[in-house]
Amino acid sequence: MNKAWWGLYLPVASTLMSIGLFMRIPMATNPNSLPIFMVQELFTLLPPAAYLAFNYILYRRFIVNCVDRRYSWIKPEKVIRYIVISDIATASIQGAGGGLEASTNPTSEKLGADIVLTGLILQTVSFAFFVILVVHVWHGVNRDGLLLRKEPWRKILWTLMFSSTAYMIRYIYRVTEFAQGNGGYLITHEIYFYLLDSLPLFIGICAYIIYWPTKYLEASVKPVYDNEMTGRV
């Protein structure tokens, strides 16, 4: 009943990130512990990439099953291929940087922080491109009057836009935080981590708890496109 294997991205990634958030508790009392720092750093940096992968897969299924491929700037299969490759590469960069950042050597630590920042910037740019693709689809179906049909797939599109916006807030915060360095205002005021990092991610995945997409994918009927409706020859 409305099951999908790719839906496992969310609970698995959420579990791993919960571990990373939990490790901030012992980190507060053991700030010099390398193992605790490594787990906390990697488990809060990397799992959100799986949240993005969920959105990429949903985008492809939405385009192919609910509307039409012509609404996507590039082929939906290529969206997954290009952006997932980008995310894997940038996540690997962040992981490598996180390992160097844990070094007791100040030079290696600084290099690691710069590498993590580079990975975050590249991942943010990649995801920003995906957000533009989603907005382009929304503009196209709205222009052609498909949103007026009140099809179930409308909830998929709105939820996809909502969650992507929430995730984008998180990545902008992360880039800003790392750009400021270890002594920056954001990293020294932990409240912003919860408000601008954890909370947007939580809100983004909770949207799918309310509107689980496979429910609407199965209920949607792909519209028939003709020249009269689209105004195209």
UniProtKB/TrEMBL annotation:
It comes from the Eukaryota. One of its GO terms (cellular component) is membrane. The keyword Transmembrane applies. Its main location: membrane. The chain crosses the membrane at residues 7-25, 37-58, 79-96, 116-135, 156-173, 193-212. It is a multi-pass membrane protein. InterPro entries: RTA1. Keywords: Membrane, Transmembrane, Transmembrane helix. The keyword NAD does not apply. It is found in: Membrane. This is RTA-like protein. The lineage of its organism: Eukaryota, Fungi, Dikarya, Basidiomycota, Agaricomycotina.
